[in-house]
Amino acid sequence: MIGYVTLGTNDIERGAKFYDAIAAEMGVPRMMEFETFIAWGKPEGAAGIAITRPFDGNTATVGNGVMVALEAKDKEQVHRLHEIALANGGTCEGPPGPRGEGFYAGYFRDLDGNKLNAFVMG
User: Nearest Cα to 112, choosing from 96, 92, 81, 91?
Assistant: First the structure.
């Protein structure tokens, strides 16, 4: 149902480094790139993610209650993605671990404060 998710950024170059590292771990390349917009994903693949400077020219802000969930292939990748996020300037919002029966996730924020998680079911 979801085609892609776009997150606002105030520094496209800084944000690109953060998401390049996350995408590399997941084996996902940059799919589109413009001066104010970069998207990672695979044509005909799962939903992609993009960062963009807001079209209206205002400052990008974080949506309260908004979170992007990145599906990992296993628990080890959940840990690697969480570590990569923190190593690239992200902040921890909850270390990797079980979150109820059958759900394992680690939570973090990107450089603009957008909340993400890496998760695996099972």
Answer: 91
> Tens digit of pLDDT for each residue in 11-40?
999 999 999 999 999 999 999 999 999 999
- Residue corresponding to tokens 């993009």: 50
Residue of 57, 46, 61 lying closest to 7 (CA atoms): 61
Strand, coil or helix: 32: strand
- Separation between Cα atoms, residue 117 and residue 22, nearest integer Å: 11
- The string of pLDDT tens digits covering residues 41-99 is 998 888 999 999 999 999 999 988 899 999 999 999 999 999 999 999 999 999 999 99
Task: Find all residues with CB under 8 Å of 1, minimum gap 6, and list them.
Answer: none
The count of other CB atoms within 10 Å of the CB of residue 21 is: 16
